[in-house]
Structure formats: structure tokens, C-alpha cells
Design goal:
227 residues, mainly alpha, Arc Repressor Mutant, subunit A, Tetracycline Repressor, domain 2, 2 domains
Length: 227
């Protein structure tokens, strides 16, 4: 019995050692992030993730416990700094005093997204696409987590847009913000639908700077159109 027990412990040791490596969790997150963008949450299996991350299932279970928990972890590690960046921009704008301009409010959200898309160390364009795709595809569990943890973000922007557009009723403003943020998330999602309308190798809806150039005036026009 003693030898058998020792044999089992020896057999499990490599799995435990692999799972507990400091960089293993990050490697799993990086691979999962890419696969979630390429295939979506439902179509991405744990088998795909473990094979490409070159780890076993025990490592995923050790660090995250489930596919849902892994997805939440992948998402939240990037989202928190982005939200902080947006609120910092909003703080700076509000501290300037005077009437809040809609275009400047929109840019307090767009600028951090643009900066993130150009920073590979924070996920770069890959995470911006994941963020957009996740919200567009309505991942219910994650949307609930976002609502709970980032209610301050929603509240701050709602108040700011109300001040900038006092002529709009609460319901009308809510609809306009819904459409505005939906358009912005879709624009950054990386689905190059533009190719359907413009058959050119030069024009691409995956160029962050080009997206912002055309996106901001479109969103502002929608938010400020007569009621």
C-alpha cells in the first residue's frame, strides 16, 4: 500500500508543479483571450486552450476552476485599467468646469480604448475586440459581473450625459446612450463589414485611428440630434 500511495503521489507531482508555475496562469489567459476573440466563448473549448497553451486540464482547474471563471478572469484583468482610464479622463474634463460638450464626453471613452488598442502589454487591439465581441454577443454571466463591479462607470457617464443633454428626458437619453455605446463596441469588434461596401485593400475597419476618425462624429450626431 505504501508503495502504491507513493507511486500515485509521484505521478501527480508533475501536474501540480506545472499548474503552480507563476507564468502558467498568464499563459493560459493569453491563449484563451486569443481563442475567445477568434471563435467566441461557446465555440472555444478547454481542450483547444490547453493544447495551445501547452498545459493540462489540471492547470486550468488549479488556477481558474472552470471555463466561465477563466473567461471572467481573462476579461477583468484588462477591463479594470480601461475603466479607470475612462473615469480619469472624465474627472479631468469635469474639473475644467463649464458646460460639458458631448463630443468631449465621447472622447473620454474613445481615447482610453484607442490607447489600449495600441498597447500590446495590456492586450492591445485583441482585448478591445474581445470587449466589443463579448458585449455584442451578450455573455450573460459576464454582463452581470460588469454591472455589479462597474456600476460607478455607468452612473458617472449617465450623469455626465444628462448634464450635456439636459433637453432630453431620462428614457430618451438612455436609448441614445444604448445606441451610442453599441455602435462604439461594434466598431471596435474587428468585424470588417466595411469590406462589403468598399472593395479596397487599403481601407480597413480594423485600423483603430481610422475607426475613431469616422466613429466620433457619427456617434455625436446621434446623441445630439433633435428629440
Amino acid at each position: 500500500m505504501g508503495n502504491a500511495s507513493q507511486s500515485v503521489k509521484t505521478k501527480k507531482a508533475p501536474e501540480i508543479m506545472e499548474a503552480s508555475k507563476p507564468d502558467t496562469a498568464t499563459r493560459i489567459q493569453d491563449v484563451a483571450e486569443r481563442l475567445f476573440v477568434e471563435h467566441g466563448f461557446e465555440a472555444t473549448s478547454l481542450r483547444m486552450i490547453t493544447q495551445q497553451a501547452e498545459v493540462n486540464l489540471a492547470a486550468v482547474n488549479y488556477h481558474f476552476g472552470s471555463k466561465d471563471a477563466l473567461f471572467e478572469s481573462v476579461f477583468m484583468r484588462r477591463l479594470a485599467p480601461l475603466i479607470s482610464g475612462c473615469l480619469a479622463e472624465l474627472d479631468e474634463l469635469e474639473q475644467q468646469g463649464g458646460k460639458l460638450e458631448v463630443e468631449e464626453l465621447v472622447k473620454t471613452f474613445i481615447r482610453p480604448c484607442l490607447a489600449l488598442s495600441k498597447d500590446p502589454s495590456r492586450g492591445g487591439a485583441l482585448f478591445v475586440r474581445l470587449l466589443s465581441r463579448t458585449l455584442v454577443e451578450n455573455h450573460r454571466q459576464l454582463r452581470e459581473v460588469i454591472s455589479q463591479q462597474y456600476s460607478v462607470f455607468v452612473q458617472r457617464y449617465s450623469v455626465a450625459f444628462h448634464k450635456a443633454l439636459p433637453e432630453l428626458g431620462a428614457e430618451e437619453l438612455a436609448w441614445r446612450m444604448h445606441f451610442a455605446f453599441s455602435v462604439m463596441f461594434n466598431a471596435f469588434a474587428g468585424n470588417d463589414v466595411l469590406k462589403i461596401f468598399v472593395r479596397s485593400q487599403v481601407v480597413s475597419a480594423r485600423d483603430p485611428d481610422m475607426i475613431v476618425k469616422h466613429l466620433v462624429p457619427f456617434v455625436v450626431a446621434g446623441l445630439t440630434s433633435p428629440a
